[in-house]
Amino acid sequence: MASLITSDTSEFAGALSNGGKLAGLDVGTKTVGLAICDAGWHFAGPSETIRRTKFTKDLEALKAFIDREHVVGLVVGLPLNMDGSDSPRTQSVRAFARNLAPLELPVLLWDERWSTQAVERAMIEADVSRSKRAEKVDALAAAHILQGAIDALANLPDPQ
User: Fold this and answer.
1) Is residue 81 part of a domain?
2) Mean of pLDDT over the chain
């Protein structure tokens, strides 16, 4: 089966059978933050952070997470420029998403322009130390990305 990669929430929802857990990915140059949501797409929460090494090892770690959590689809944060255009970083994340094809899961590319800043601001307001913020920001950013996507998916018109 060919993997679907889309920015269209309706197309993504159509590729998923009947709900199921989704994983959010905040893809950085050194880490991939992971988040998970419930099968009913109500709540997203941070899960873990994968330290990036070689892509084959990163893919193995991601596959283990997907198998353990019974994930049916992936939401990958897409770091667009503030004007909505692509940057070199955006191209890198699109390539990462294409390389997830062996997982055979639908992928939703989700605009993540404000995710890391929003999470950082919330942690500063909660008086989280700089070192604690550094270790948690990637998974929290992934949860922020995933929550935005599942909120959009929940507001799609019923296909019947």
Assistant:
1) yes
2) 87
Q: How much is the pLDDT for 159? A: 55
| Residue 160, in any domain of the structure | no
**105 contacts 74 by C-beta, under 8 angstroms:** yes
Task: Tell me which residue range forms the domain holding 32.
Answer: 5-154
Which residue type sits at 11?
A: E
| 159 assigned to some structural domain | no
| CB of 33 closer than 8 Å to CB of 138 | yes
Q: Count how many domains the chain has.
A: 1
Q: What is the pLDDT of residue 129?
A: 76
CATH, residue 90: 3.30.420.140
Residue whose structure tokens are 């998923």: 16
- C-alpha span between 108 and 142 (Å, rounded): 13
Q: pTM for this structure?
A: 0.89
> Can you spell out the DSSP letters for the chain?
-PPPEES-HHHHHHHSSS--EEEEEEE-SSEEEEEEE-TTS--EEEEEEEEP-SHHHHHHHHHHHHHHHTEEEEEEEE---TTS---HHHHHHHHHHHTTGGG---EEEEE-TTHHHHHHHHHHHTT--HHHHHHHHHHHHHHHHHHHHHHHHHTSPP--
Tokens 């049916």 belong to 72
